[in-house]
């Protein structure tokens, strides 16, 4: 049992408010006046969630993007966010971080409203948190609504960010679409809004297609079969499309595409790639070239 | 110019949303549906905002209390909060932290809704953030509304937490009311709700009476005279009530009492201690035993 699992178990035993959704969802939901507020918060830690050599503007961008992606999965409209910032001691670094953060926030009309700024003791890893709030006006899909017979889709290919991370690790000056996918993920807010009224289940891909699909299957009490691992041209060009590459892509994290289920026969209202289907039963099956393949021991990024 | 001042200046130049209040207030205000949400966020850092030897339950309590205190200053009703937690690697420590956090949250009917949990690299100072949301249903005093002629009050004595910190620093096992004041500050939520409709200006005392009163004077474009520094019996017993002790108490932080202004002749609807008055002009005057005394070079905790 991991530290975090034990901690969440301890938290769950204390948390009684319905809005917390038992801490099993990516967001909390709070009725405020005649509206519903969707809340999410992510912390990124130097050396854990980003590489110390990553450009600060990309770190700022990513902090915004991962939070916006959680709102996207609920079809929520961004209304405001709060930043907890650990000063770097380097004004140019701080300015570049804010540039990247605001670039991502501004692109999605997300106002930064306040927060707190602290100094860390010398030698400490720095961490940054963003708490994002969105407003849900209509249907709000959870990860637990998938039904036998549904078809499964993603809003884009998977695995690019995983390869991008490998490239950035071996060469901090690496660039190109795969590194961009890792450093500048695009939260699918427009797609989320359009999908929310129709998707029976929806979540963003943060930890990897396999593990996130397995979570959707478990939460929905259904079986999920993935029969297509969509790869980008950039990834195929860099690594080919062997079974090993497809499995690696399906367990790579940080893609931030939306994974969603639609009733059989429904056409997605956004550009999307069919990747499988939902049936009665439990568990996850991965098929490559028409044949079931053994699942890897570690399905994705567990934390 | 401090790091944080430079950072806030940079942020202010980018932040355009009215709800951010130009980052000059302790809270942000967000209209949601037919309601107003009051938002605040505080981060505490090991070795900066608390002593590594502090009992974890007290650290958890304090994180909740400082955020609740910001809501108290607006007369806002707690509606929910999000926690960003750095795992300690010690399950008993984490459990004790959560105990203290929940004790403070439960006492004020503040639901914990979610957040994020991270691991820090070995050797790093840990930090914890809480983002608290409240709902304002009526008048919401700012720090900028004090008027010439107003009388100034606090909801309790000042300086206890400052002495408590000294005692805890020299002896981690120290106890008693002064150490309690430092480790278990009481946010004045009930008082804040009762005062909000009447106070022309209100704020919580986090950095010290002198510096916080100077900030109220500046924000309100008035002069403030403090003619009484209220000391607790515990503090007088420990340190006496000399001019030096009074000045030290007035520049000590972490009290979390409410500082508020009422029109002349109005009676506070809560237990409160009169400490001075507002007049036209600018700046802060401190009078002890009827005579103005020179202000200390550092008015309080600046960060």
Automatic annotation (TrEMBL), chains A, B:
Lineage of producing organism: Bacteria, Pseudomonadati, Pseudomonadota, Alphaproteobacteria, Sphingomonadales
Domain PurM-like C-terminal per the UniProt entry, residue ranges: 147-265
Protein name per the record: Thiamine-monophosphate kinase
One Gene Ontology MF term: thiamine-phosphate kinase activity
Pfam families linked: AIRS, AIRS_C
Protein encoded by which gene: thiL
InterPro entries, A to Z: PurM-like_C_dom (IPR010918), PurM-like_C_sf (IPR036676), PurM-like_N (IPR016188), PurM-like_N_sf (IPR036921), ThiL-like (IPR006283)
Additional facts recorded: Reaction mechanism of ThiL seems to utilize a direct, inline transfer of the gamma-phosphate of ATP to TMP rather than a phosphorylated enzyme intermediate.
Binding site for Mg(2+) 3: 26, 70, 204
Its biological purpose: Catalyzes the ATP-dependent phosphorylation of thiamine-monophosphate (TMP) to form thiamine-pyrophosphate (TPP), the active form of vitamin B1.
Keyword terms, alphabetized: ATP-binding, Kinase, Magnesium, Metal-binding, Nucleotide-binding, Thiamine biosynthesis, Transferase
Family according to the record: Belongs to the thiamine-monophosphate kinase family.
